[in-house]
């Protein structure tokens, strides 16, 4: 296994992302968020966007999983080889990309994309998938690590309120590559459970780095309580 991926075994990676139009959608702000989660003990950072990645790379030595969300199609996480090469160019250690079987905007297959990233950058590839079958196919396509990132985010994958830990367990048991649990992990207990279910590492984003959503959890609970009281 790639030594950098090996170093993440049993550890927490924190995803530091803000969304278009939000007040925190600012590379300098995300750099500071990444520095803050490093103080809390994050073993790695996952981040989005070329400038965010450059600033975080310059500020922190932690393993950095990079992606570039772009376009308005179904495939939006590092959708093309050009996006993947640009992510690698920021100094990110791992290139995360859409690992589903859906057509990519540049018409390359996942296997072609992974091979080109390996040949041209030497960086490992994290394939973000939504189903068991996609995880198996992504490992066969050469992905170095598979993430459950897109479970519940494709029209054909399971949608539940919480993380798909059954998917994490099945992929972790069957794949020859490490599996990262990612997506809707909202509590320390769920993060620990994902590791117990076999995940190599766990990525948490929203519950740590997205104050608008965290605040909404609280405001809704308070409103609910006020209604029932
Ligand atoms: C589906 C999609 O676009 N996921 C993105 C992938 O990078 C991010 O928006 C998520 O925040 C990240 O996966 C972490 O997940 P959560 O925020 O649920 O802990």
Automatic annotation (TrEMBL):
NCBIfam families: PRK01130.1. Keywords: Carbohydrate metabolism, Isomerase. PANTHER family: N-ACETYLMANNOSAMINE-6-PHOSPHATE 2-EPIMERASE-RELATED (PTHR36204). Pfam families: NanE. Converts N-acetylmannosamine-6-phosphate (ManNAc-6-P) to N-acetylglucosamine-6-phosphate (GlcNAc-6-P). It catalyses: an N-acyl-D-glucosamine 6-phosphate = an N-acyl-D-mannosamine 6-phosphate. Belongs to the NanE family. The lineage of its organism: Bacteria, Bacillati, Actinomycetota, Actinomycetes, Streptosporangiales. Pathway: Amino-sugar metabolism; N-acetylneuraminate degradation; D-fructose 6-phosphate from N-acetylneuraminate: step 3/5. One of its GO terms (biological process) is N-acetylneuraminate catabolic process. One of its GO terms (cellular component) is cytosol. Its EC number is 5.1.3.9. SUPFAM superfamilies: Ribulose-phoshate binding barrel. This is Putative N-acetylmannosamine-6-phosphate 2-epimerase. GO terms for molecular function: N-acylglucosamine-6-phosphate 2-epimerase activity.
């Amino acid at each position: 296994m790639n030594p950098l991926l090996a170093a993440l075994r049993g550890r927490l990676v924190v995803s530091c992302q803000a969304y278009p139009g939000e007040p925190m959608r600012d590379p300098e702000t995300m750099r500071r968020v990444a520095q803050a989660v490093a103080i809390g003990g994050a073993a790695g950072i996952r981040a989005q966007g070329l400038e965010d990645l450059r600033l975080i790379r310059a500020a922190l030595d932690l393993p950095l999983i990079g992606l570039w969300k772009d376009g308005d199609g179904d495939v939006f996480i590092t959708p093309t080889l050009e996006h993947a090469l640009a992510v690698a160019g920021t100094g990110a250690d791992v290139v995360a990309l859409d690992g589903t079987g859906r057509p990519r905007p540049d018409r390359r297959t996942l296997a072609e994309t992974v091979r080109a990233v390996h040949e041209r950058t030497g960086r490992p590839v994290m394939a973000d998938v939504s189903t068991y079958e996609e995880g198996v196919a992504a490992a066969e396509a050469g992905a170095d690590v598979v993430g459950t990132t897109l479970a519940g985010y494709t029209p054909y994958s399971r949608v539940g309120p919480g993380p798909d830990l059954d998917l994490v367990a099945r992929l972790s048991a069957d794949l020859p590559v490490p599996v990262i649990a990612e997506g809707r992990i909202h509590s320390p207990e769920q993060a620990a459970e994902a590791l117990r279910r076999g995940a190599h590492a766990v990525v948490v984003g929203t519950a740590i780095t997205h104050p608008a959503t965290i605040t909404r959890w609280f405001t809704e609970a308070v409103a609910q309580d006020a209604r029932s009281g």
